[in-house]
Design goal:
CATH superfamily of the largest domain: Aldehyde Dehydrogenase, Chain A, domain 1
CATH class of the largest domain: Alpha Beta
Oligomer: single chain
Number of strands: 17
Strand order of the largest sheet: 10-11-12-7-6-13-14
Structural class: alpha/beta
Number of domains: 2
Number of helices: 16
Protein name: Aldehyde dehydrogenase domain-containing protein
CATH architecture of the largest domain: 3-Layer(aba) Sandwich
CATH topology of the largest domain: Aldehyde Dehydrogenase, Chain A, domain 1
GO molecular function: oxidoreductase activity, acting on the aldehyde or oxo group of donors, NAD or NADP as acceptor
Keywords: Membrane, Transmembrane, Transmembrane helix
């Protein structure tokens, strides 16, 4: 066992990281260290991620904002009040307690954000942190080791290559958060005929092709209604010009956009470009757009990690729902909807996804890693992690509910049950009657079904047509038949 793990185990046992003021001091030190090393950090991000300088700065400032958010959040008066609620004979049902130690394994594709924000959230929850960063050629890895180790308390924070905590300690006090495990599921977009096709194309192209096409929340598949396919494809090709133009490879401005110094490597053995069995609508050094019509194409269910916007036609909203839900055993990582609000409501209700967005894609979402759906404590999964936009990780993810109750006030059912049990075998009618009344349901008060359904409408329509035919025929018979009958009778 290393000296780092020994110090962290001792700090967990002492509860050293749980003081509100200690947490705030640690977050302030982290924020200051990030500010002092801004240039070095953004340069390392740009070099390691092959992204543009503005994109590296975007990740840096989003990371800094998350730390600020955790620093600003504590209300010390309320924290003090909550701490002494039991002493004042008050309930504290919302009390949460730190797990102890959080073992953070960052996502290599967004190392800065996942390492710093996850660690800051764990610190804000009152935990010690063990951050796993492997010894690699990455400049950012080496820089983070230096910056974070010098900024944070070495007794409550440590950087290691592997978790060497004792097994019994790990099972009781250590939560493992592997940020790389949350990014294996697909992200889909649905563009309905009722949506703004130009806006949808712009947002989806930007999401897919910015950040070198490596954003964990970039759309892997775009489902477009057949009715608006032509308009959407034209808008997408227009929106993609700044990324696809040949000058993108040199990092020069294109149509007012400054693009990264990068070039799509179609010869990469891991590239999905070779697997595209589709019509290429537009291509260039910075990526391409393809239309796949064959639903058996395995690329439709592949997680894409490069600037490829893959489009597939759908015939209706129900077709989109059926296709998405049957294509994957797990819910989507995210769902982007571009449609009128009623259609978006229908889609978000029936398409299985962790999080959905209607007519927009938050820029914050495209930066950073995907939190795993659960964190583990020992061999058990704890804390189902809710998908968040920003900060992606929250203190609630690294704490456990531990409510406290000191108020002896009883509910009506509690009083009746106490009386029933004290009554022994007699089971008095009055107590049973009170229990019966206390457990009665209120009237349902469901309104009478006054709406006309599909089949009722058909019956009414058919009956109306039949009745109008009978009435019309009778009127014609009376109008012309009666005079004729009168004339015939007179002649006879």
């Amino acid at each position: 066992m290393s000296s780092t793990t020994e110090r962290i185990e001792a700090a967990v046992e002492d509860g050293r990281a749980q003081s509100p003021r200690f947490k705030q001091r640690q977050l302030a030190a982290l924020h200051e260290a990030l500010k002092q090393n801004q240039t070095a950090i953004t340069t390392a991000v740009e070099k390691d991620s092959k992204c543009s300088a503005p994109e590296a700065n975007a990740q840096y400032y989003l990371t800094l904002d998350a730390v600020k958010n955790f620093y600003d959040n504590p209300d010390f008066e309320k924290l003090l009040e909550d701490e002494y609620k039991v002493a004042h004979q008050k309930d504290n049902p919302n009390r949460r307690s730190a797990i102890g130690c959080v073992n953070v394994i960052p996502d290599a594709s967004s190392l800065l954000y996942s390492a710093v924000v996850a660690s800051a959230a764990a610190i804000a929850a009152g935990n010690c942190v063990m951050l796993e960063i492997k010894q690699t050629l990455s400049e950012l890895s080496s820089l983070l080791r230096k910056v974070l180790s010098s900024a944070l308390d070495n007794d409550t924070f440590g950087i290691v290559e592997t978790n060497t905590l004792a097994q019994d300690f790990k099972a009781k006090h250590c939560c493992v958060l592997d940020c790389s495990k949350g990014s294996t599921r697909s992200v889909a977009a649905i563009v309905d005929r009722s949506g703004d096709h130009a806006k949808a194309a712009k947002e989806l192209v930007d999401a897919r092709m910015s950040f070198a096409g490596k954003s964990r929340y970039a759309p892997d598949l775009v489902l477009v209604n057949e009715y608006c396919m032509e308009q959407f494809c034209k808008a997408a090709m227009q929106a993609a010009l700044p990324y696809l133009a040949s000058s993108a490879a040199s990092g020069r401005p294109v149509n007012g956009h400054v693009t990264a110094t990068r070039k799509l490597n179609t010869n990469d053995k891991n590239s999905v470009v070779k697997e595209v069995n589709a019509v290429t609508l537009s291509s260039g050094d910075g990526g391409f757009i393809a239309l796949a019509r064959d639903r058996t194409d395995k690329l439709l269910s592949t997680k894409i990690g490069e600037p490829l916007l893959l489009i597939h036609p759908i015939s209706s909203l129900d077709d989109a729902i059926d296709f998405v839900n049957t294509s994957s055993k797990e819910p989507l990582q995210a769902l982007y909807l571009f449609s009128a609000p009623p259609a978006a409501k229908y889609l978000s209700q029936f398409v299985k996804a962790d999080i959905s967005f209607t007519n927009h894609i938050p820029i914050e979402l495209l930066l950073g890693s995907v939190p795993p759906r659960t964190a583990s404590l020992g061999t058990e999964s704890i804390n189902s992690l809710k998908a968040e936009v920003h900060p992606r990780f929250t203190p609630e993810m690294f704490s456990i509910p531990r409510p406290e109750y000191a108020n002896h006030a009883r509910s009506p059912i509690s009083e009746h049950l106490t009386a029933l049990l004290q009554d022994g075998k007699q089971q008095s009618a009055s107590i049973v009657s009170k229990l019966s009344q206390a457990t009665q349901l209120k009237p349902l008060n469901e309104p009478q079904g006054g709406g006309i359904g599909f089949f009722e409408q058909g019956i009414i329509t058919g009956g109306t047509l039949l009745l109008s035919t009978i009435v019309g025929g009778t009127a014609i018979a009376v109008r012309y038949g009666y005079p004729y009958l009168v004339r015939m009778l007179r002649r006879s």
